[in-house]
Each structure stands twice: as C-alpha cells, then as structure tokens.
Design brief:
55 residues
Length: 55
C-alpha cells in the first residue's frame, strides 16, 4: 500500500506531538480520542492552508 500525502502529513504531526513511537508500537488505534482529535485538527488546518495557498 502506497503512502499518500495525507498519511505522510499524519505521521509528521504525530512525530511533532511526540506520539510517533506510540503509533509505531500500537498502531493508530492505540491513541486516545484526545490525541487522535489533536492530530485530526492540525491535519485539517494544514490541508486548508495548503489549499488556500494553491488558489
């Protein structure tokens, strides 16, 4: 399975938040709802910013 830009960004954000080791060890399901939400929120903001820059 090929990594998408979305997957790459998710991994980068997890690393920035200090959660990459947890994801690598237990998978995405090992994150709490709060941790997942934080990653999702940052991801959404970055995608929105990127799309606005491409207009």
């Amino acid at each position: 399975m090929e990594k998408t830009d979305h997957d790459t960004m998710k991994m980068e954000i997890a690393e920035e938040l200090g959660l990459l080791e947890k994801v690598n060890t237990g998978g995405w399901k090992s994150l709490t709802a709060k941790e997942s939400g934080r990653i999702g929120g940052i991801l959404a903001r970055r995608k929105k910013k990127r799309s606005e820059q491409n207009v």
